[in-house]
Queue: 2 jobs
Job 1
Amino acid sequence: MVRVLVSGVSKKYGSFYALKDINLRVDDGVLLCILGPSGSGKSTLLRIIAGLIAPDEGRVFFDDIDVTDLPAWKRNVGMVFQNIALFPHLSVYENIAFGAKLRKLPRNEIDKRVKELLKLIRLEGYEKRKPSELSGGEAQRVAIARALMTDPAVLLFDEPLGHLDAKLRESLKFEIRRIVKETKKTTLYVTHDQSEAFAIADYIYVLNRGVIEQGGTPVELYENPRSPFIAEFIGSTNFLKGRVVEVYRDVNVAKVLTSDVEIYVPVREDIGIGESVLVGIRSEDIKVSKEIIKRDTPYANILVGKLLKKIFIGPYLRLEISVNGLEESLKADVYGEDRYKYLDISEGDRVYILITKPTAFKYS
Ligand code: ADP
Ligand code: MG
């Protein structure tokens, strides 16, 4: 097994930086996700680690070995892409065995390994099937087995679920995590889908325009986004511009004036009075009530508003609320049994809201 280290890697296309000064480390056996929107440089980074593209600057190490100048086939990486590209005329068995046959491994060794892998991907008995006789999810698992056949030091996934429908993605992401964790291989997994990254990763780096904006575990990113970009990408839906009018240092809470409304927001040391800030509020962090909400701390954000819109999504009820004194409306999501309680409120009705976890970002 291997630790992957990317040090100061940049890649330019013309004068455009597809990647700029990327530094990251994936420890032995860790499943790392690179999460970022389309065009942020994810595939470029993965290809540089695989040895399919050379960086303009920086180095790539597998353990202490500098592999930057090694071609892909000498790096011993296993790759799984979005377009699976199984060989259509070969059986599942032959597809999985393909790389090992090229390397002229002994037949009984190949046979043993293919059987182990079929067990790992839970497709025992599928040896003779052709790719056309597999579902999308089964085909993707065969592609994973094929990548594992030569016992790669590092596993690389580039949006392997991208072409599958939502239901299949949902189940296959857990399946991929299970398979990868069973092999204990150091893995980099690229995706643009936040929920996929959260379900799969031990650790996540968020990539934005060729730069790593933040690294953290799913919980760290969710609880402590360092920029509005991260907050939005991780799921914040409401953003309000405002100005800090008071800071209570003993509790590290700022009073932010946004339009005509005061909101109390936890802040770090670097935000002081007079500062312009953007306040991020996740829709799931707004509690809605038909009755007056009691204040249980001096910094509770309790506001009054009017229901503008109500949409039943299924797992949750999305409410759009115009708050007295706020220019923009807020979106709140009600989960659990409560979502049925609010089905009977009408557009135009008065509602009370409690904002539980706002985040402040410096803003200029
Ligand atoms: P992602 O995988 O995150 O969608 P990519 O790594 O494929 O992003 O691409 C990052 C950026 O680099 C994009 O703006 C893309 O247009 C550009 N790019 C990628 N490959 C090339 C290339 N061969 N020539 C020019 N620009 C490229
Ligand atoms: Mg890509």
Job 2
Amino acid sequence: MKVLVATEKPFAKAAVDGIRKIVEEAGHKLVLLEKYTSTDQLLEAVADADALIVRSDKVTADVVAAAPKLKIVVRAGAGFDNLDLAACTEKGIVAMNTPGQNSNAVAELVFGMLIYLQRAGFSGASGSELKGKKLGLHAFGNIGKIVANIAKGFGMEVYAFSPSLARNPKLGDQYGVTAITSPEELYDKSDIVSLHMPANDQTKGCINYDLMSRLPQNAIIINTARKEVINEADLVRIMEERPKFKYGTDICPGNHEEMVQKFGVRYLSSSKKCGAQTEEANVNAGLAAASQICKFFATGDRTFQLNK
Ligand code: 3PG
């Protein structure tokens, strides 16, 4: 079988080497398409692929249509809003992700961004500390749980809201966080909010003016999730109204230039999404993807299938 790794943002070399080893030892062939710059290159590369490993690369209906031999696509990572699951299902293609494999890297970045914003962009101006601050985790999956753990090391008080916690608040005790039963209450209680929800029809634009205005004047929002979850016009409005409000994001917003011009060091955006861009996360997610594909071909295993 031909396994194509198509990554516009490539994995670390150690991850590619590990993927190759797993794929070749299972008797398959590995083909790499890295740093591609046009969809046409992807469409051409998938033409004879039996399996596909991607990161945030968009697997659209066009990509699926251009890949008549494709049997399985694995998103090496957590969020799968880049996969057209309906198109995969229609063609009988199994779609999977690798949940949890890159979570630690993303969780660590949350604190990198927070400290940068708390310390006025390392400018030498007086900043503030994380100790004693109330951290609200909006969603509590694999990343949120690690963020909670690290936050406790900083001496923060941790609150979390997610639909599963709202249904079962006792789950919070297990992780030493206070479970909150509504987003409104989470924003009422928090000094800092870190976003960890997927982008889907329920979450798009859900961080709106009403929620943000519940935070204190000098609040910080950190977004390592997806840009679609925040209402960008509402964010500009709240940051204009509140001269100490800060926003850090790993996903460049649509209004980046406006944010830079209006808010200076109160705004931080990665130049390219880098939450999961560590060698460790690349190895964890990449090797998991390769193993899932080989297992699927060997035994039909469908653990982590998304389009059931
Ligand atoms: C994920 O959903 O796993 C993260 O957002 C990482 O995405 P990336 O593989 O594009 O860095």
